[in-house]
Specification:
129 residues; mainly alpha
């Protein structure tokens, strides 16, 4: 159980690091697609990049969590649930800033993508990697 808890905690840290770091990198590399300072205008291209970063973050977090816990189903479900709870909180804060389609796709994708990341790692374990 301790490995599962550790996997979930590190998976959450990995998810947050990739997502926030990715946001910063995108803004530095392509400032023209960054939102205004007051977030009154958020370009669709930036919203799409946010969504892709969420997918990558969830896959990677699930993969790392299972790598640490050596257990796929409980670990990814707990991590995905935690990401969903935190995601609901932050999406509620940004409700009027970002489009509805983004909020829905982002929240709906958290658990399945985290589980998929864990399954990818689980398959590598079965193959001996």
């Amino acid at each position: 159980m301790l490995r599962i808890i550790l996997g979930v905690i590190i998976g959450f840290i990995v998810w947050t690091s990739i997502r926030l770091g990715g946001n910063d990198i995108v803004i530095k590399i392509a400032p023209s697609i960054a939102p205004n300072a007051d977030f009154s205008s958020v370009p669709t291209s930036f919203v799409i990049i946010l969504f892709v970063l969420g997918l990558i973050s969830s896959l990677t977090a699930g993969f790392i969590a299972v790598l640490i816990s050596r257990e796929q189903s409980k670990t990814t479900l707990i991590l995905g649930g935690l990401l969903l709870l935190v995601g609901i909180f932050f999406q509620a804060m940004a409700w009027n800033i970002l489009p509805l389609w983004y909020h829905l796709l982002f929240l709906i994708s958290l658990i399945p993508m985290t589980i998929l990341g864990g399954r990818i790692r689980n398959e590598e374990l079965r193959k001996g990697n």
